[in-house]
Amino acid sequence: MAEESSASCSSNKMKTVFLAGGVGHHANGLTKTAGSTTFSNSKPGAAKKLVIKNFKEKPKLPENYTHETWQKLKEAVEAIQNSISIKYNLEELYQAVENLCSHKISAKLYKQLQVVCEDHIKAQIDQFREYLFLTLFLKKIDKCWQDHCRQMIMIRSIFLFLDRTYVLQNSMLPSVWDMGLELFRFYIISDMKVQSKTIDGILLLIERERSGETVDRSLLRSLLSMLSDLQVWLSPFTQGMGKPTQWISCPIRPVNQPLAPTPVVPDYLHHVNKRLEEEADRVITYLDQSTQKPLIATVEKQLLGEHLTATLQKGLNHLLDENRIQDLCLLYQLFSRVRGGVLVLLQHWIEYIKAFGSTMVINPEKDKTMVQELLDFKDKVDHIIHVCFMKNEKFVNAMKEAFETFINKRTNKPAELIAKHVDWKLRAGNKEATDEELEKMLDKIMIIFRFIYGNVVPTYSFMVMWSQHIHLWSCGPNMFIYGHVVPTGSFMVMWSQHVHLWSCGPNMFIYGHVVPTCSFMVMWSQHCQNLPGNIELTVNILTMGYWPTYVPMEVHLLPEMVRLQEIFKTFYLGKHSGRKLQWQSTLGHCVLKAEFKEGKKELQVSLFQTLVLLMFNEGEEFTLEEIKLATGIEDGELRRTLQSLACGKARVIHKVPKSKDVEDGDKFSCNDDFKHKLFRIKINQIQMKETVEEQASTTERVYQDRQYQIDAAIVRIMKMRKTLSHNLLVSEVYNQLKFPVKPADLKKRIESLIDRDYMERDKENPNQYNYVA
């Protein structure tokens, strides 16, 4: 930008234009003038001539100017340090500093200022070496620091030109502010007595606050800010904060003392969480933000990291047994904050599941409730993983591993008990659960079943138990299980997805074909309308080979029943040629209409129970031998039938003498005084207990089935490899089989295949086998 003015010249009256070449400053009679540019034009229309004049020489400073100016500046600095008024105007002082710097006296001026500040700070140290109470000492050091900061701000404002020119050009020199910090740190805070007392005092105030006392937080904030500005925060102070006796105070127990008894562990967890929240609040309130991570890590290490195992040993089982969800959530959150905490918790989690599950499986006294307890326990641990352990995949896999470990400590028994449990649940039917609840129960049971090692033994045992306890038959679109209606879609589809796909074997009967179809049943119903008599017959035909094999049992049916059987046989063979019907009396069931003194009832009973009850239409009292002769029912089956009618909950007949078992010579009569709140009453047949011989037979059948699978695996491998060493063959067989095999059993199967010419030993190497095509 240019400033234009006119001036007259006595010689030629020429006009002179001054362009911006500098700025003149005036102070104390001194003038600094920049060079000028002049345009001259002697004649009108002639070309203008540009004349550039040299700068005038910089005027010299008057004698004693530097000394007098420094004395003035020193007097102002000392006034600031002593908190008295300054005689001179701040702008005048600022201009004086600029004049000195402009004449290259900056270095001397900086050293003189440093000496003045150093002398003042040196004089301050003596007041802190005297014996003072801790609180008074901290307030005194804080006041000294606050005064120092205020003084250096004013001093820097006066020497700002020096700071922005000379100091800025010399990177090795600290700024005026930093110079003040260095001097305060070197002469005051670095003094061992002052530093030790300051840090100890701060730590003591923090410890008092942690103990519940009220302290001056503004004082703490100021002192800690001082340490941070002086850069001593991360050295001696942090070391002091890291000492267990100074860093944290626990009202429940000292840091080095063992954990309290089990009931206190949840309280201790809440105490640790409260401590962490308090420390986070202190960081926000008066600590430096940069210290949050190391200081919180120190708290976590002191209260958690050094006591992980002890906390879990004395408290985890208690929390899990009582299902204390909130405390378990807090436990997981706290352990997640400590390095290695989750892994330690995971290991104790596995041990707890194994120990708790083993008490259910190994103890024979709990066989009656084992399956339900396993289901409840599985629901419990699933809920804990989902809610408390944040669905951590490691805890899910650990739970599965633990279940597989303890449930296989008792061979075959869990599978048998699962079958019995399913049988009992299906018998109860809609009395205890809806169809939807039944489906969920079956899903859970199959998950438990899946944990059993080796698919062959448990599956075969499960299948045998199932065939002994569960009878399935169908009527139209629904499947009847002991008279309970289960939609086919909700049962068959589900079990076909779970059971068969888990290698339950090709003979698993849950896929049984049901014949005839609904259209055939409609035709039979229409045909029965024209038949004489008051007995209604419903027949369900099961395709042989898809259902379990039932032992035929010939019994003495009523003439009306025999006649209806023949009519159905003729009707069925008339619709389907080349087929053979075999009646399974053990699967039959009937609905009888009975009259008692209380009124009429409908009894839903088995075919065997029906034959026994119908005898009382012909007489009032019969012995065991008479009933056996009249019905033709096998002795064991008859005793269980009479037991269900005379010793169960619905006692429609009397037994003399009264007892739980049916013995030879017992007499039976109709109970005319029978009462029941329901109109239709279902009387379940007593299930035959599995004998030791039957269990041994099942085990033998399982063993034989395994031999076939081992043989098939060996032949399959040898056919593909042609030649293989013994160790490689054994290794590949183990990989293919889904159940454990003893080396001795595997060696026997290899010898058997060699004897049957499926394979042979190599003539040159006896440890190598060749496949025989």
TrEMBL record:
Cross-referenced InterPro entries: Cullin, Cullin-like_AB, Cullin_CS, Cullin_homology, Cullin_homology_sf, Cullin_N, Cullin_neddylation_domain, Cullin_repeat-like_dom_sf
Pathway(s) where this gene product acts: Protein modification; protein ubiquitination
Gene Ontology CC: one annotated term: cullin-RING ubiquitin ligase complex
Limits of the Cullin family profile domain: 413-646
Ubl conjugation as UniProt keyword: yes
Superkingdom: Eukaryota
Keywords: Isopeptide bond, Ubl conjugation, Ubl conjugation pathway
Matching PROSITE patterns: CULLIN_1, CULLIN_2
GO molecular function, one term: ubiquitin protein ligase binding
Record-level GO BP terms: protein ubiquitination; ubiquitin-dependent protein catabolic process
Family affiliation: Belongs to the cullin family.
Protein's UniProt name: Cullin 4B
Gene source species: Oncorhynchus kisutch (Coho salmon)
